[in-house]
Amino acid sequence: MPAGKLALGSAETVYFDEYNPTVLRPIERSIGRATLKLKSFQGFDLWHLYEITFLDADGIPKVCCGTLRIDASSTRIIESKSLKLYILSLTMTKFKDLKELAAVISSDLEKELLSSVEVKLWDLEDCPFSPQRSDFRLIDNTDCLIKGYDYDDSLLQFGGDDKVEEHLRSNVLRTLCPVTGQPDHAEVFIEYKGRRINSDSLFAYLVSLRSHRGFHEQCCELIFSDIMQRLSPDELTVVCAFTRRGGIDITPVRTSLKQQVRELPRTLRQ
Description:
single chain; alpha+beta; GTP Cyclohydrolase I, domain 2; 5-stranded mixed beta sheet; 31% strand
């Protein structure tokens, strides 16, 4: 794509969830530097990527974060919205591992910027700028078979007859705005008391919301309602910490408790 030819603000935005590097739009640095009086400097542009989700070789959704480093001496920059659309296009695409994904991103950006681009990716749990949540057990590290990505509350199953109190979390929730179709991402926290929930079934259920259209508040209420209806825990709290959009974020909290629910600290992607 020739640098500087931007159509991102002139038509309705199309969100791709299959790999599509053609959405990337480079811009010549000379456009912004033309009026500078001092042009002798060094440096780099460091991008932080908080919402990278893709499928592994088995079709299981994965979430990672990362950085892009572009030297200030490059002749081109990447337009930010086009980068966002490109990252979103990885959502339903399979990659062997983070190394392969990083190589693809680096190669695509280097073709557009005509310069080297350093890409570093980390699993969300290993990210150097990620807060830790030791009191919530991550359920995403699973080998469960994912049969589809359409909403299915029947996936929720018990994991035994014993009564437990558990604090669970997942990074994989991805839904769609019912108005714009824009993808939304959230970290989900689930606290419950009652008959043990099968964590693999809970993970598969959250994955089934991957193409569900709903407002943030409605999505949280749907998760709460489905767990209560199908698994009947004695106590249940569901928190959906959605990533920020336009400088604001929302964290819906739905609970069966009458007392005040503890407020969770902000997540990495907020």
